[in-house]
Specification:
This protein is an alpha/beta fold. About 50% of the residues lie in helices and about 10% in strands. It has one domain: Rossmann fold.
Length: about 220
């Protein structure tokens, strides 16, 4: 048997081995990427002096394609203005605060200031931060879109209590804050029925909310 004949006989086995090796490498790469994403220490990126942003998304009313596009555009604007270490929390507005969902609680990745020598031995690099920012944007987009795709219309909406309770969890007197609300702003809860919501002043609505939820007004918020 000539060498050429022996090679032709071995070629199927060699090809199969190469394919198996490539599949194994692809699997290991996928596992490595997934583990890397899961291993991100988001809390480590939170700055004690940075801004806190709260975005509330009302899921008690249906969204058409135009509504979804407006929300996506708004998200891009909000995320695009986040600075180093800023924290963003996205929570839903449901028929009661206990039924709301926290979709995102992340801080914008950044490398803290360091000396030249410290930077030489630091694991925080521009490439790493860019990848983590891309991961954050992907998670925000995916979580909001995924939740809207699973929409179920609700008979009641507890907007005021959700705002005050969520603000209590997120904001502090030591940090500036911003609140964004994507909603038709029509309250219809057990303690503020729709008829009362339409006739009561904002001051009375907030007083009723603070009285029932034991939440005081939030300072330093925009």
């Amino acid at each position: 048997m000539t060498f050429a004949q022996e090679f032709r006989n071995l070629r199927p086995s060699i090809t199969k081995a190469i394919v198996q090796s490539l599949l194994a490498l692809s699997f290991l790469f996928a596992v490595s990427v997934g583990a890397s994403a899961q291993a991100i220490d988001w809390n480590g990126y939170c700055s004690p002096t940075a801004k806190r942003v709260l975005l509330l998304v009302d899921i008690t009313t249906p969204y058409d394609n135009q509504d979804k596009q407006i929300l996506v555009d708004g998200l891009q604007s909000i995320v695009g203005k986040l600075g180093d270490g800023d924290r963003i929390v996205i929570r839903t507005i449901a028929d009661s605060y206990t039924h709301t969902e926290k979709l995102i609680d992340r801080c914008m990745p950044y490398c803290p200031p360091m000396s030249f020598w410290d930077s030489l031995f630091s694991n925080c690099t521009g490439g790493l931060i860019l990848n983590h920012k891309r991961t954050l944007i992907s998670e925000i987009r995916g979580s909001v879109r995924g939740r809207l795709d699973q929409f179920v219309e609700l008979d009641h909406s507890e907007i005021v209590a959700t705002i005050t309770q969520a603000a209590k969890e997120v904001f502090s007197d030591q940090q500036s804050s911003e609140v964004f609300i994507f909603s038709d702003l029509i309250e219809n809860s057990t303690y503020i029925p729709g008829k009362d919501f339409n006739i009561l002043s904002n001051e009375l609505l907030y007083q009723r909310s603070w009285g029932l939820t034991d939440v005081s007004p939030v300072s330093h918020s925009d």
